[in-house]
User: Which sequence fits this backbone?
């Protein structure tokens, strides 16, 4: 399955149904129905038996969900009140296009559904006071405009709870760069689907998780169920390496390989695993970098604290402008993450 | 006229103030089937003439009417190329920096060997994970933002020059109730009103020579309208520009409803001509709101009114929400109604119109 297809599927946290269905079908196609499960919180777990029964049992995770918005009500004029699902800086929302609801293909006789177009406007610069220009518009003063005439029409077309995603086409550009929404973490899903066919040494469970962006709710249940010896999270992470930003604030650099984190806000990588991972990358000549600062948190932390404890390590793809409508990453870094994860699972 | 089709076309044309060659070429082709002659002047004004189709009863020369709506757009320019290949931005017209983070833009790179090349750029933003409380309280300033071309600095330097133009991306997005959002609705939606009127006038008779003008450089002081008015030497003129529709934060005294055209009153507008416009609206069942301008209208009217020995003018306002963003939103039916109003105003213009102005 191509990354473009995965990125085009809509799936905010808690509403991953379209991504889940596509990933489930793909896992079944590759591994057979008997090896693929959807668990009780909505994770897809694809099991692959290892060639060495004594090797550690590995859980690899990547999350299916993306950050987005959710309708909560509407104004009398027909503008939708929304709330962020996942961490979104409201400053990136002004003057952006969104899709309200999901594009659902025709299935079992039910007709296809099309999402509504929406835009997020703001008061014209001509009408702003000096104070307005400085003031950040909070989420409760940003509205999604679908063109509805009044509150009733707005909520009939987009009832409370309707998921909203950014409207950004998947666009390769520049020198091997990709612009898209939801790269965090369809990149990880994409690489995990490619890893399903690799020759794993130990028993391996590939877990496509839900609800990472609202606190890694999916990974917790899956890790508890599987009780792995080792946990590897495949993530998209924050790169802040533009312009004259001092190197100390970069976190990581786009185009310089997969990141290996020694620590983030959720976990400290197992030092042995961290060292092995770097040595493996060196030996295999895989572009890699150590994440330069402690930021973000992910499923590494969730897996680590499961049961009696799990040794974990996180491999990420640097993403600029993450959690915004326009996330940018390098195709070469996606490849590096895949190669390092593959080398680790096969060794 | 298929308004949505027009809007989808115009929203991918680039034409920053002073650099309207691309959009003027596109507009010229739209006017050609509807007019007797179309020219593009040295400032990229598109001037389309539709000659009178009926003689004046008293044999006097056909009055010349100028209709003006601007084609240029606010934009940015490359102010600096940084060592990592990212660009700092300067501005050409009033871009609100609040709309920029996480936007996509088109960089019109002139430094390569193949003429101007359009490059996709992304305006970056700091990831929320790295923002502290103080960062979150301030809007980004343009000078703090970068354009990311996704290329190493050598490749950027080989193609991009300081001064190259940067335009905003904002395709036409249809919404419910015949509404639509796009960049440069200000003021190419008003050019659509001119085209709609021209199409309607194919089947109507008019005693006036009509000059449809898609003006240039409005956003930097209506320079195109000034020279076009000099060249045309009109007897009267109608300017069309967008105005602010009501949104939750706006003051009610400075906005008009989204669902109908408006006409401006105030000293710069010839009040008898305005009455004639209102009468045309009444006679043909067109809803027309009003708004005020106590002095400057900040439209092409301001320069046309004082061109040569002076020109009596009226101003038609097309309401839209979120002006000077890439999601300028309007009701496409109002474009049709503006076109209909213009066509009837011109069709109803009879001999003696000018004697009534100052009596």
Assistant:
């Amino acid at each position: 399955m191509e990354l473009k297809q995965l990125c085009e599927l809509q799936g905010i946290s808690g509403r991953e149904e379209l991504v889940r269905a596509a990933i489930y079908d793909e896992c079944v196609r590759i591994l057979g129905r008997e090896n693929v499960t959807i668990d009780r919180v909505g994770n897809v777990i694809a099991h692959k038996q290892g060639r060495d029964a004594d090797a550690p049992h590995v859980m690899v995770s990547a999350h299916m969900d993306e950050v987005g918005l959710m309708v909560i009500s509407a104004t009398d004029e027909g503008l939708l009140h929304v709330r962020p699902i996942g961490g979104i800086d409201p400053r990136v929302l002004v003057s952006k296009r969104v899709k309200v609801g999901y594009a659902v293909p025709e299935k079992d006789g039910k007709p296809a559904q099309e999402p509504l177009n929406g835009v997020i406007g703001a008061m014209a610069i001509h009408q702003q006071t000096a104070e307005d220009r400085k003031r950040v518009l909070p989420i409760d003063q940003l509205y999604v405009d679908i063109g509805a005439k009044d509150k009733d029409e707005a909520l009939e077309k987009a009832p409370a709870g309707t998921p909203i995603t950014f409207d950004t086409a998947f666009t390769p550009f520049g020198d091997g760069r990709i612009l898209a929404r939801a790269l965090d973490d369809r990149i990880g899903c994409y690489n995990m689907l490619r890893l399903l066919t690799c020759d794993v040494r130990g028993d391996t469970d590939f877990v496509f998780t839900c609800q990472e962006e609202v606190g890694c709710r999916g990974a917790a249940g899956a890790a508890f169920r599987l009780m792995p010896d080792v946990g590897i999270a495949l993530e998209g992470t924050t790169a802040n390496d533009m312009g004259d930003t001092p190197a100390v604030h970069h976190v990581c650099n786009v185009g310089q390989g997969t990141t290996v984190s020694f620590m983030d806000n959720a976990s400290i990588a197992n030092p042995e695993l961290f060292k092995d991972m770097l040595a493996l990358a060196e030996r295999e000549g895989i572009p890699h970098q150590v994440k330069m600062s402690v930021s973000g948190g992910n499923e590494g932390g969730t897996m680590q604290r499961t049961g009696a404890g799990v040794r974990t390590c996180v491999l990420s793809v640097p993403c600029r402008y993450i959690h915004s409508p326009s996330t940018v990453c390098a195709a070469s870094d996606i490849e590096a993450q895949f190669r390092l994860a593959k080398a680790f699972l096969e060794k | 006229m298929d308004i949505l089709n027009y809007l989808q076309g115009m929203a991918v044309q680039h034409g920053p103030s002073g650099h309207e060659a691309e959009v003027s070429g596109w507009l010229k082709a739209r006017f050609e089937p509807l007019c007797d002659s179309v020219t593009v002047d040295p400032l990229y004004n598109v001037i389309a003439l539709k000659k009178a189709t009926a003689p004046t009863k008293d044999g006097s020369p056909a009055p010349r009417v100028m209709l003006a709506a601007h084609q240029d757009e606010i934009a940015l320019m490359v102010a600096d190329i940084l060592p990592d290949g990212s660009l700092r931005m300067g501005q050409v017209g009033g871009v609100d920096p609040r709309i920029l983070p996480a936007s996509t833009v088109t960089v019109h790179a002139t430094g390569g060997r193949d003429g101007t090349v359009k490059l996709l750029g992304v305006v970056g933003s700091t990831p929320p994970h790295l923002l502290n409380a103080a960062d979150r309280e301030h809007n980004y300033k343009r000078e703090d933002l970068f354009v990311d071309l996704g290329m190493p600095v050598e490749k950027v330097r080989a193609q991009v020059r300081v001064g190259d133009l940067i335009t905003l991306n904002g395709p036409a997005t249809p919404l419910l109730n015949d509404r639509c959002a796009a960049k440069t609705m200000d003021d190419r939606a008003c050019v659509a009103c001119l085209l709609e009127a021209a199409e309607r006038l194919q089947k109507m008779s008019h005693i006036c020579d009509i000059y449809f003008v898609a003006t240039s450089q409005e956003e930097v002081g209506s320079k195109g309208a000034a020279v076009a008015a000099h060249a045309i030497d009109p007897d009267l003129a109608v300017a069309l520009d967008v105005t602010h529709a009501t949104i939750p934060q706006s003051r009610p005294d400075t906005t008009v409803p989204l669902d109908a055209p408006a006409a401006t009153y105030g000293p710069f507008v010839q009040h008898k001509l305005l009455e004639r416009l209102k009468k045309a609206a009444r006679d043909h069942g067109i809803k027309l709101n009003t708004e005020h301008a106590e002095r400057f209208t900040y439209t092409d009217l301001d320069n046309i009114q004082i061109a040569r020995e002076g020109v009596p003018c009226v101003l038609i306002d097309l309401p839209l929400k979120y002006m000077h963003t890439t999601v300028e939103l309007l009701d496409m039916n109002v474009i049709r109604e503006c076109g209909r109003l213009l066509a009837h105003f011109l069709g109803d213009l009879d001999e003696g119109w000018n004697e009534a102005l100052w009596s």
